[in-house]
Amino acid sequence: MIKQLGENGGGFFGANSAHPYENPNALSNLIEIIAMVSIPSALIYTYGLFVGNIKQAWLLFWMVFTIFVVLVIFAAIGEYQGNPLVNNIIGQETANLEGKEVRFGWAQTTLWAVMTTATMCGAVNGMHDSLMPPGGFTTLLNMFLQTVWGGQGTGTAYLFIFLILTVFVTGLMVGRTPEFLGRKIEKREIVLASVILLIHPIAVLLPSAIALAFPKTLAGISNPGFHAIAQVVYEYASASANNGSGFEGLNDNTLWWNLSTALSILVGRYIPIVAILLLADSMAKKQPVPETPGTLRTDSSLFITVTAGVILILGVLTFFPVLALGPIAEGFKLAGGIK
Q1: Which residues, in sequence order, are bridge partners of residue 250?
Q2: Mind listing the pLDDT tens digit for each residue in 38-95?
Q3: Residue 210: is it exposed, middle or buried by C-beta count within 10 angstroms (0-12/13-18/19+)?
Q4: What is the 3-state secondary structure (H, E, C) of the chain?
Q5: What span, in angstroms and rounded, lies between the C-alpha atoms of 330 and 227?
Q6: Residue 240 in contact with residue 265, Cβ under 8 Å?
Q7: Rounded CA gap, 24 and 333, in Å?
Q8: Is 321 buried (19+), middle (13-18) or exposed (0-12) by CB count in 10 A?
Q9: Other Cβ atoms within 10 Å of 214 Cβ, number
Q10: Greatest CA separation found in the chain?
Q11: With contact defined as beta carbons under 8 Å apart, do 126 and 135 qualify?
Q12: 286, 183 in Cβ contact below 8 A?
């Protein structure tokens, strides 16, 4: 239970939460899923208490919840439809049960996979490497965004950054100096927010490119093709996002992998922490700006919808090339019946 609430993910047994001693039945599975999301989701409401705007907190909560539900449905459809290559061989439609515990089946395993990557927990009750392309796409996207739901405080902090960027973008549209929480958003705040959002792709994409340039010697790829790209990128995304789960299938117990992923952990976590603290200090030192009829309301459905668009556009566009070369290409390959 402590690894679920604490969002560490490492289990006493190598099989993690697929082991019957750790996770014996559907009830324990549900309790562990709730444990993963309880603190990250509660911190969104806590943010509302801190800033004195409960309405904005609830709007953010339902925005994150909606994105999460859409991702769960997308991943579930892929697992329910199963592997077309296997279905063609056996002559019937069946769900994808590869890498799954039979006591959980495809549905509970899919929900867990999406939740554990959404909350940065990393505990697993099935093999993520065996997920169909929609599942691989969803788990990767969760770790790319880090806001649905995000880790304990991480998700809320990144939501805060996206709110600042949304205020900045909408302020430019209407020709008004952007304001957030009664403070003006100026160059320093935008620079720090940009640094926070750029560190993660740097910590993921640069080492991934180096590893993929040497597929056998550095990356240790044993499953060449589109899936191998997803495996490598997943490894660094998991490290930088402090998730801990893996696609496996790589010969990753090497000096290269141990050092490079350790560097991704350090860069992906500590630099954003410092930048967020500097941003908070900068905001705290600013003189409050009185609210006027022209002040942009950040607790409206329209603003939160724009925020959702900014999150998805920035997240998807930043990582779209690797998603296209990984799970998306693999999905088209399987749909075409190519082994």
Answers
A1: 221
A2: 999 999 999 999 999 999 999 999 999 999 999 999 999 999 999 999 998 888 889 9
A3: middle
A4: CHHHHCCCCCCCCCCHHHCCCCCCCHHHHHHHHHHHHHHHHHHHHHHHHHHCCHHHHHHHHHHHHHHHHHHHHHHHHHHHHCCHHHHHHHCCCCCCCCCECCCCHHHHHHHHHHHHHHCCCCCCCECHHHCCHHHHHHHHHHHHHCCCCCCCCHHHHHHHHHHHHHHHHHHHHHCCCCEECCEECCHHHHHHHHHHHHHHHHHHHHHHHHHHHCCCCCCCECCCCHHHHHHHHHHHHHHHCCCCCCCCCECCCCHHHHHHHHHHHHHHHHHHHHHHHHHHHHHHHCCCCCCCCCCCCCCCHHHHHHHHHHHHHHHHHHHHHHHHHHHHHHHHHHHCCCC
A5: 6
A6: yes
A7: 36
A8: exposed
A9: 12
A10: 69
A11: no
A12: yes
> What is the number of structural domains in the chain?
1
The answer to whether the beta carbons of residues 103 and 25 sit under 8 Å apart is yes
Q: Report whether 83 contacts 96 (CB < 8 A).
A: yes
Cβ atoms of 116 and 126 within 8 Å: the answer is no
- Its domain, for residue 58, covers 2-335
- Tens of pLDDT, residues 179-196: 888 889 989 999 999 999
CA distances from 175 to 37, 171, 178, 223, 254 (A): 39, 6, 9, 52, 53
CA neighbor of 325 nearest in space, from 220, 252, 228: 228
The pLDDT of residue 213 is 93
Q: pTM for the full model?
A: 0.94
